[in-house]
Amino acid sequence: MSTRVLLEAARARLADAHREALGELIVPRRVLGVGRLPRIARCGSAWHLGVLLVTDDAVLATGDIVRARQEVRRGFTADSQRQRAELAAAARRGGIAEGETVHIGWMTLDADAVDSGAASGPLALRDGVPSVRWSTAGGFMPLAAYLDERVGLLRHPPAGA
């Protein structure tokens, strides 16, 4: 089965499932030498299926994931915490609702290229089977099985998730 057919079947099963926001980081130009704060603008929504984001007409590789929240002064033990807090505040400034998850830094994948033998992000053809690398250190697994598992988890999350 082709990558495109597998993704279309997943979309049909996900029609009424929860979607998460896709965002784009906007860094405004300086005006009269004064810098303005960056914001994350909503640019769509997708079903989050592990390393993949599936939209109505595309498949994307996940990037950074943040939960929007108001900016507050905090002490940070690590610079990475400060950067994530700045991204969360940028999402809130961009109009993302408090507590809502937003994906930024995602990359569009080419499902047709995968079927012709070229890899596209975490998607690749392995022994003639569309496959996905579910982590950078992990191996490939058949895309059909991966989508079945992830769609099931999204539609029926485990208790406490």
Describe this structure in words.
- The strands form two sheets. This protein has a seven-stranded mixed beta sheet.
- The chain starts with a helix and ends in a 6-residue tail after the last helix.
- 27% of the residues are buried.
- It has helices spanning 3-13, 79-93, 111-115, 143-155, and strands spanning 20-26, 39-49, 52-54, 59-61, 64-67, 101-104, 107-108, 123-126, 129-133, 140-142.
- The chain is α+β, with helices and mostly antiparallel strands and 161 residues long.
- Helix 1 (3-13) packs parallel to helix 4.
- It has four helices and ten strands.
- Strand 3 (52-54) and strand 4 form a beta hairpin.
- The mean pLDDT is 89.
What is the alpha-carbon Rg in Å? 18 Å
Shape: elongated
The largest β sheet comes out as:
7 strands, mixed
Tell me the helix content: 25-40%
Strand order of the largest sheet: 5-6-1-2-3-4-7
- Provide the structure class: alpha+beta
Helical segment count:
4
What is the percentage of strand-forming residues?
25-35%
Our measurement of the CA-to-CA distance between the termini, rounded to an integer number of angstroms, reads: 32 Å
Q: Strand-and-helix sequence, N→C?
A: HEEEEEHEEHEEEH
Poorly predicted spans: none
The tally of beta strands, per DSSP, is 10
Mean pLDDT value: 89
